Amino acid sequence: MKQRSTIRLFVVAVFILPLLAWFLLSWYENKIESLPVLGKSKEHRIAGFSFINQDGQQKTLANWENKIVVADFFFTHCPVVCPKMTRSLKKIEQQFSNNDALHIASFTVDPARDDANRLKEYANQFEINNHRWDLLTGDKKELYKLARNSFMVVATDGDGGPDDFIHSDKLVLIDTKKRIRGYYNGTDEKEVEQLITDIKKLKHEN
Q: Which residue of 1, 144, 153, 191 has the lowest C-beta tally within 10 Å?
């Protein structure tokens, strides 16, 4: 009997306790642990904007009220990186298809070619849900100012002029208070999975 008790204690110590510890740690990281608030300061917020989406509708920051937002900066003629990012965003959108609290925003960095009609073609090509996902175009200087100063997706300086060009593979997670909560490589499956996990964290937080 004593030998059996010793074996049971050994099994609990070697297998059960580490498994329980891993489960509790995983639960804490996924449900409780808060995401960092990123930006120039704790008060940093996404600035107001006014752009046109693929349906020709004007969209502003007010449309993000009470929304968790995943945003990226892309262009429709991008041959490799942007299609991968768009497919990653589709995966995220489908993961939360029954949750109206999530919104996706893709800002073009090539507004000269990406007008509303071109964005509509791109949306149809990738079967984008127009009610949950805005492809946005507008004044180049305003788009680039937003990318640099609000979303901070690039560290380079520029004025949004004819020779200025931004390209980033980052997906940006924005909470309901318009704060940046994470950056993720939109072409990396593991980082996209982490983004999905972090969206769930924000839902718990909110």
A: 1
Spatial separation of the C-alpha atoms in residues 81 and 167, rounded to whole Å:
9
Per-residue pLDDT at 88 exceeds 90: yes
How many Cβ atoms sit within 10 Å of the Cβ of residue 13? 10
Whole-model pTM over 0.70? yes
Structure tokens at 86: 């768009």
Length of the chain: 206
How far apart, in whole angstroms, are the C-alpha atoms of residue 91 and residue 133? 12
Pairing of strands 170-174, 180-185: antiparallel
Task: Enumerate residues 6+ apart whose C-beta is below 8 A from 167.
Answer: 73, 75, 78, 81, 109
d(CA 85, CA 88): 5
List, for residues 107-147, the tens digit of each pLDDT value.
999 999 999 999 999 999 999 999 999 999 999 999 999 99
Structure tokens at 26: 């995983």
Residue type, 199: I
Following DSSP, what letter does each residue of 171-193 receive, concatenated?
A: EEEE-TTS-EEEEEETT-HHHHH
Q: Chain centroid to CA 194: how far?
A: 10
